[in-house]
């Protein structure tokens, strides 16, 4: 009996060791402590800060400069992107659009317009999978198919940035993306804007974004949101009134964690 207990204890310790090894590499779901009253956002308590630093990923930019980086996730088109592009053109604001394969196939004219009007195209994967649950070969295929489809559509050759679908990642996926030539991009300003059945109006969107502004902010907006579309012009104007300047993500030089 004593021998059985010892063996059982050893097995349990071994299992716990396997669990710790597995969990040490995630998967992580990106989250952060939001900026409030001008204080900087934080990922100090999230458990993955070192993983982002190790893989040179972007959380936020230079917190000594009043610069903002506007990013949109485009999984599918909900009729609002043309208006978003109109506002960006009118306000002379650069942005980056993270596109899925579905979006590139379904809306080539909008993808072409993004490039023509000077915006960056980022990789959001071909089929929006949990990257931590697919093999290295599958992950490479997910990224390459989007890049090739954008090249075929717009003749744009370079694609430097990737955003993991749903913000799920681990060290392996960030490292592999980096080896494929990508910088992984997360965010430091966001709110629940992706639920098309829970839109709360442009005023709500405006307040949510403006309350979180901080130097070096990487702003995440979903293009399927009516609220974002209707509030975008006011957000840009309001940020500029506070002395902020909107910059293209490829000009971000200093990464802050």
UniProtKB/TrEMBL annotation:
Domain NodB homology: 66-247
InterPro entries, per database record: Glyco_hydro/deAcase_b/a-brl (IPR011330), NODB_dom (IPR002509), Polysacc_deacetylase_ArnD (IPR050248), Spore_PdaA (IPR014235)
Presence of the UniProt keyword Signal in the record: yes
Keywords: Signal
Signal peptide per UniProt: 1-24
A Pfam family that the UniProt record links to this protein: Polysacc_deac_1
NCBIfam families assigned to the protein according to its UniProt record, in alphabetical order: spore_pdaA (TIGR02884)
Protein name, entry field: Delta-lactam-biosynthetic de-N-acetylase
């Amino acid at each position: 009996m004593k021998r059985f207990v010892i063996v059982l204890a050893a097995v349990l310790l071994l299992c716990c060791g396997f669990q710790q090894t597995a969990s040490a590499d995630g998967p992580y779901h990106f989250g952060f402590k939001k900026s409030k009253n001008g204080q900087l956002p934080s990922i100090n308590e999230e458990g993955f800060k070192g993983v982002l630093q190790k893989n040179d990923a972007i959380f936020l930019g230079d917190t000594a400069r009043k610069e903002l980086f506007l990013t949109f996730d485009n999984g599918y088109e909900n009729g609002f992107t043309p208006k978003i592009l109109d506002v960006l053109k009118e306000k002379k604001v650069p942005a980056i659009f993270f596109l899925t394969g579905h979006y590139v196939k379904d809306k080539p004219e909008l993808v072409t317009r993004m490039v023509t009007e000077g915006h960056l195209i980022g990789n959001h994967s071909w089929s929006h999978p949990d990257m931590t649950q697919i093999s290295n070969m599958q992950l490479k295929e997910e990224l390459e198919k989007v890049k090739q489809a954008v090249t075929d559509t717009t003749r744009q050759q370079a694609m430097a940035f990737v955003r993991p679908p749903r913000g799920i990642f681990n060290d392996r996926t960030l490292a592999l993306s980096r080896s494929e030539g990508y910088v992984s991009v997360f965010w430091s300003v966001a709110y629940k804007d992706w639920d098309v059945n829970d839109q709360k109006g442009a005023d709500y969107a405006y307040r949510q974004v403006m309350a979180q502004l901080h130097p070096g902010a990487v702003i995440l907006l979903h293009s399927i949101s009516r609220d974002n579309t209707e509030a975008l012009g006011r957000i840009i104007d309001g940020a500029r009134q506070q002395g902020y300047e909107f910059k293209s993500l490829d000009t971000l030089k200093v990464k802050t964690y």
